[in-house]
Request: fold
Amino acid sequence: MNVKYHIENAWEHSINNVVPLVILTVVFMVISICSIGILLPVAFAGYTNSLFKLLRNNREPKPQDIFSQLNLFLPLFIFGIIVFIIVVVGFTLLIIPGLLVSTATSYLCLYMIPIMVDQKTGLLDAIKKSSSMVTSTPIVDHIIIFCIFIALTTIGGSSLLGFIFLQPFATLFLLSVYEKQV
Reply:
């Protein structure tokens, strides 16, 4: 896998559309914060849909795109609650099981939302497809992609300005990789 290509592709789209991406990311952030995280997964699905349109059609991202995937609210909400409960139980037992469960879930579901948005599949099918994608050969490539994506979102999440600029770049990077995988 050509990681350099995906980084350059994400960078090029980020730079060429910096203002619409900043506006889209701020709207995404405000919706997520005002809803106390309840709308975060479905807002991220809409965010992903908007960035898919940017990658595929070079269409400028629009803030109203955040609400384009509201049909995914219930499955993503239920999935989030189940994962939250399992991770909390893991952290309650000891720290290590919680870290293992959260890392494994994040890795296996790396492409879940892009699959749900792109292929209009249900939650379970998206989890199965994402899991099969990240466990296919060469698995090292997917681990590298996962580490880069997590690093970008973690660094971006450490500050407001970092989030506004790194979240679109990280998501475009992941979607660029997804496009080559499908």
Notes: The chain has one domain: 3-181. The CA atoms of residues 110 and 179 lie 13 Å apart. The mean pLDDT is 93. The two ends are 13 Å apart (CA to CA).
